[in-house]
TrEMBL record:
The lineage of its organism: Bacteria, Pseudomonadati, Spirochaetota, Spirochaetia, Leptospirales. InterPro entries: Nitroreductase, Nitroreductase-like, Nitroreductase/BluB. This is Nitroreductase. One of its GO terms (molecular function) is oxidoreductase activity. Pfam families: Nitroreductase. The keyword Flavoprotein applies. Keywords: Flavoprotein, FMN, Oxidoreductase. It comes from the Bacteria.
């Protein structure tokens, strides 16, 4: 079967299929993910390479009632305060990247049935981050390392491993910087030490099959634009 025709609900049978069919899932079935599948995904992801084998990550997988309570606390924090992440969110982008980011936002709102000028609906959609978009499991990636360029690369490699391994199991994911917005809430809920920084999170579960949002794939620049052979 052509990989472009494979549904996000099917198991990816190769790395190429996982890469080509993976995209952010923002609506999930309520079905819980069996512990053995979550263990398989995250245990394999530990093989991710890192600078001098430093392995700068800790992984916290939250399901069930703990997930529900943490979601309530994060939503409450989002209503009552402004984000206070422990990492600096990027603020400056080249003009071409800004255009792609703006276009992405507009297309997602369109797929969600939200009018561009409907600020309240957009805010409610943003809050869905803290409800993990309905996914039964939330994951938080933390680190005790001093953050620098190479630690960032290592964490990005680990995240990519998780996203692709999840596709291999027929799972959907959404990587979320928003889940680092209120690190004190996460630390208090999970009993994490102060020095353990909450870097990012992701939602993971089974994609809702009849969702317009889940049919949306972000476009990519052409290979001719980005790749050069010498």
């Amino acid at each position: 079967m052509n990989s472009s025709m494979i549904s996000i609900h099917e198991i990816a049978t190769s790395v190429s299929e996982a890469i080509e069919t993976r995209h952010s899932i923002r609506e999930y079935l309520p079905d819980s993910v069996p512990d053995e599948i979550l263990q398989k995904v995250f245990h394999k992801a530990l093989r991710t390479p890192s600078w001098k084998n430093s392995q700068p990550w800790k992984i916290h997988i939250v399901s069930g009632e703990k997930r529900n309570q943490l979601s309530k606390e994060l939503v409450k924090a989002a209503y009552e305060s402004t984000p206070r992440p422990e990492t600096n969110w990027p603020e400056s982008y080249p003009s071409d990247a800004k255009k792609r980011m703006f276009d992405l936002g507009m297309k997602i709102y369109e797929m969600a049935g939200i009018e561009r000028k409907d600020k309240e609906a957009r805010n409610q959609f943003m809050l869905r981050n803290f409800e993990f978009f309905g996914a039964p499991t939330a994951v938080f990636i933390t680190s005790k390392f001093d953050l620098n360029y190479y630690v960032g690369i290592d964490l990005g490699c680990f995240l990519q491993s998780v996203l692709l391994l999840a596709r291999e199991e027929g799972l959907g994911t959404c990587a979320q910087a928003a889940l680092s917005s209120f690190p004190d809430v996460v630390k208090n809920s999970l009993g994490l030490p102060t020095e353990e920084k909450v870097i990012l999170g992701l939602s993971i579960g089974y994609p809702k099959p009849d969702s317009n949002l889940n049919r949306f794939h972000t476009p990519r620049e052409s290979a001719e634009e980005l790749i050069r052979f010498y």
